[in-house]
Amino acid sequence: MKIAVAGMGLIGGSFFKAAEAAGHDVAALHHGDAGGFESAEIVLVCLPPANIVQWIAERAARFAKGAVVVDICGVKRPVVEAMRAVKQDGWIFVGGHPMAGKEKSGFEHSDAALFKGASMILTPEEGTSASVTEKLSSFFSSVGFGRTVVTDPDRHDEMIAYTSQLCHVIATAYSRDGLKTYSDGFSAGSFADMTRIATQDEKIWSDLFLSDRDKLLPVLDRFISRLCEFRDALDRSDGGAIREIIRSGKKCGRHEECLV
């Protein structure tokens, strides 16, 4: 299959390496490249959120007939809505988001195995042919993804606010404590897990947070409320309340029941 990947950062570079390793005919496009995508059956646009729609719109008349253009961005509604104004003449746009990454950015950290077992999320517009999502699912499976999840942009953005963005907010807040300076020799796996993603790219992640502000705020408010619940129980020396909070978390962790 002929594939074009625009943007050679961590994600774009990993797609390029994974697709090449899977035997696809892959064109790697850097930000300034003018061509190389015209015959591609699938075009993956792995650019910063602010550049995606412009890059696609400027090339809209040159995509191959039947091509599927997929953006690789962590928030879907702004991109999908803006793409409705771009004329799709013989090709089709599908929103996409790979649930994989690293705390380090850049092509030098890209990895052909980055997507192994991960989920690939697609947000096709209503009326998109099932053959399009099947073609994409087949491709993403070939480069290592364990499954493809098809949903709508609103649901995607709500879930990502919880499963991804909130985690980055927590890691940032956690890492800003003064005691972190003295943590060497006092930390283990849980500390490493909590601080690993605090090295996020501030420009990209601030754009993602603000683009998904209406979904992230309620998730963040509920989290703060649960922290305050624990803090108040601790302040009261209320062991029973603390144990109940822990039990509730264990049940949610085992998917037995979860809070609203």
List keywords for this structure.
7 strands; 260 residues; alpha/beta; seven-stranded mixed beta sheet; 2 domains; 6-phosphogluconate dehydrogenase C-terminal fold; Rossmann fold; 9 helices
Can you tell me the overall shape? Answer: elongated
What is the averaged pLDDT score? 94
Biggest beta sheet attributes: 7 strands, mixed
Helix content: 40-55%
Q: What's the number of structural domains?
A: 2
At the fold tier of CATH, the topology name of the largest domain is Rossmann fold
Distance between the termini: 44 Å
Estimated share of beta-strand residues:
5-15%
User: What is the N-to-C order of secondary-structure elements (H for helix, E for strand)?
Assistant: EHEEHEHEEHEHHHHH
The level 1 CATH classification of the largest domain is Alpha Beta
Determine the structural class based on helices, strands and strand pairing.
alpha/beta
Major β-sheet strand ordering: 2-1-3-4-5-6-7
Quickly count the helices: 9
The number of strands is 7
* Annotated CATH architecture of the largest domain: 3-Layer(aba) Sandwich
